[in-house]
Amino acid sequence: MVLKSLATAVVIAALTGVAAAEVIEGGLQLPVTTSQASLERLIAGDAAAWSGAASSPIALQRTPPLYEGDPLDDGFRPEATVTAVRATGALMVRLRWADATRSEPAPPTKLPDAGEAAIYKTHSRDISGFADAACVMAPKLTGARELFPSLMMGERGEPVNLYYWNLGRGFERLEAAGRATTARTGEAFPGTARRTEEGWEVIFQLPDIPAHTPLSFALWDGERGQRDGLKFFSLWYEVSS
Fold this sequence. Notes:
Layout: E1 2-3, H1 6-16, E2 28-30, E3 32-34, H2 39-43, H3 47-50, E4 55-57, E5 60-62, E6 80-87, E7 90-98, E8 133-139, E9 147-148, E10 160-166, E11 170-176, E12 183-187, E13 191-195, E14 199-207, E15 214-220, E16 232-234, E17 237-239
Parallel strand pairs: 2-17, 3-6
Antiparallel strand pairs: 1-9, 4-6, 5-16, 6-7, 7-14, 8-10, 8-15, 10-11, 11-12, 13-14, 15-16, 15-17
């Protein structure tokens, strides 16, 4: 768990370059704007519907290499921002980040096979390709708290919801309670993704997550071979209101 304290604020400031005075105890602040715009306009990315909402830069870190042959951390971090709007019983989160390439591996396909029908129903055609992706992580226990869950997908007794978008699979809610426990739920949730001149804009329609709930963000760049735990990630950001 992560203890909310002044020491934590100082550590966050050192990692992110944000002044310690700007750090909410235990996490960075995520401003939230209340909007009268419809969910349909917000999820469509309507510029007028999002106007007036504050966008905040996301201070990203990168996980260490996980697999043999994975690239070492070269210090690169994509420029990324997050914008949050509360409207009609939902928290809308918009992530924007720089990504020069659109990475989507070829889908698996059925091929002739001499084995049993139950084996190798589909074959991966692009085993070295990985999809661009993004995620918003939120503790299942929402609201104000003294302790934050581990950033490593939560922990035992502190499960998290993972609102995940993958270019090849769309939007899906996942669950986890610690490293290597991520499980698919089969539940989709509303969201949209589109390419921009700089990279990606992905909008997540989340439940009406209350103030002071911590959120963390993750991005995967398929062109860089990122997948699974190899990714860019943020520290906790507290929902301001």
